[in-house]
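Dissemination and training. As part of the outreach component of the grant, students in the summer workshop were shown how a complex can be specified as a set of sequence lines and then modelled as a single object. The example used during the hands-on session is reproduced here so that future cohorts can follow it. Participants entered these lines:
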Amino acid sequence: MARLLVCPPDHFGIRYEINPWMRVSNAVDKDASLAQWRTLTRVLEQDAGAKLERMTPVQGLPDLVFTANAGVLHDGTAVVSRFRHPERRGEEEHFARWFKEHGYRVIHLDENCYFEGAGDLLGFPDTWFAGYRQRSDVKAHRVLSDVYGKEILPLELVTSRFYHLDTCFCPLSNGELLYYPPAFDAYAQATIADRVDERRRLVVSHAEATRFACNAVCIGSHVVLPSGCPETTARLQDRGYTPHPLNLDQFLKSGGSAKCLTLALD
Amino acid sequence: MLVVYHPSQVLAKINSLQVDQPTPAPGPNPPRVYNKTMATETVTLEGHVIDSLILAKVLDTILQRSGTFTIEEMHVGATREDASTATIAVHADSPQRLAAILHAIQPHGAMVEHAVDCTVEPAPKDGVLPDAFYATSHLPTQIRLDHQWLDVDAIEMDLAIRVTLDPPTVRTVPMADVKAGDLIVTGRTGVRVFPLERPHERDVFAFMAADVSSERPHPPMIADVAKRMRMICDNRLKADRNGEAACDPDPGTKVLFVGGPAIIHAGGREALSWLIESGFIHVLFCGNALAAHDVEAGLFGTSLGYGLRAGCAAPHGHEHHLRTINRVRNAGSLAQAVESGLIQDGVIASCVRQQVDMVLAGSIRDDGPLPGVITDTRQAQAAMRAALPGVGLALLVATTLHAIATGNCLPAKVPTVCVDINPAVPTKLSDRGSFQSIGLVMDAASFLRQLAQELGWEG
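and obtained this result:
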């Protein structure tokens, strides 16, 4: 059974602007965000069959809700994120503590080596892909590769709107890839094309990419994604998946959606 | 699942990364190519850099920003999980351009090798170096000063490196010339030495790497020496007509001839004189003896008392070189002896007429000596060094001590041809480690005649 880490949005809000989606003036509707998050967790647990672990929210850390950026976990070892923006660095100790308390061997990166967790590290069983340039440093991937003994292919993210790999790239459980090519440089696009054959590459349109269609959570045949992405939803259905489009627009105000709100624990 | 790469796939991939320049094949430590006009920094790239095309991107970025690169070392991971490592020397035509390239490639993981500035210490006394001074080789050398790699000027083996900070200058200095308080490079950090690039010309200098040949056929080698001399003379003409800036710095603009008296004894005087008169030689290093016997041959027809034509000792011939030296001393100088008509032909007369830069360095057993012979060895060294800039070929013929002294003063990049009947001399010269030194074990006169004939002498 898939286990996911989530954090209730009790203190979620737009308190600063560290990506082009964030506007402090674009206030979050607290009740709506709570309702959307509850729907998300219900679908993940009841429809997708995931087991959720809930972190305790912390006052003053509005983005703690985006647990995808906590770090990366694999084989009992957690590499804790080192955030590029000081605004989020306060989250690091809470994530590290949670990992430690739950039995993970915790590894910290050099403080000048930025890495924003599963937000920038996704993959298929054999190959992991890592986003760099916007938030994470390419040198972090080298360390992670040594820690986990995995091939990690760095992909350069070229636009600030798609600042994490999970905003434009979503591996699915049957080997398909949902992605938005213009978020990557030509070398990264060539690397993706080299590793994922054409019939498994599901290119997301600009309109739906900016609705965060790629910020989806795939658990078996279930795919939880933001609503307002009919093309992507239909294509997922065609491929035999069960899409669960959810309204998560309060979180989009902060540049996040379904995937950003979860961290796979395995 | 472990996926093992086939080396051919990896190589094909590396090759396919190239846009404008062929990637040197991965291999153990290919030489770092030195080019004086280039700024160079070495970077390493680690990780899954091949399949992610990060290596390709870095190399493309270097080229797109008008840089070039040399892959110094490439280790390709054996399996998908294994990381690869590339060590890349990045070259650009200015430090500013290099800095821009490094700035552009660092976000892709290219890490500048940990480089530190060199250390300097003041010289404790005049003529005394700090104890840990860096001793130079004759290979192109750079030191890192204030985060910049700077060429060491006038590189020569067995010297120290003196720096001034404002303005920054970096130059070799002989031990005896150092002044108390001069800043001298110490230790080895912040110093890098470049192996020489093989010469571009596909001639004897390219293929006979530091070879001493007594058994190989000499004519083709001599033909290549002649070709090199023509190239330098053409370049010199270009410089004369259009200024130094117009000529190609690579082949140089001067041919240096270093000779011993055996040239005169062996009958090479005419051929050497012709080479000088024809403008193929521009600097002459010799001792008292070559000049004395050359002039003696003109005045008495003997060399060290032996009749050059009769082939036997002339009566009282042992006095000839003393009388020769005495007459030249009376004339005041070799130049005045030529102008007055005392010396009419031969090596020295040709040098004076062609305004060849002559450095006559004396030795302890010299008679006379002739006027102009420098008897202070430090002054002689300094005069030799002063004549070296621009030398693109050195012919060291029939002299042991002058050949070795000259060899020690020459940067490794200057091709040298050492001709001696005694194999020990060319061997000693070739041990200097230049790619471009060739040794010919043969008679000096035969060499000079063949060389002059290659260049059009009809004698």
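The longest helix of chain B spans residues 218-242. Students were then asked to discuss how this feature might be tested experimentally.
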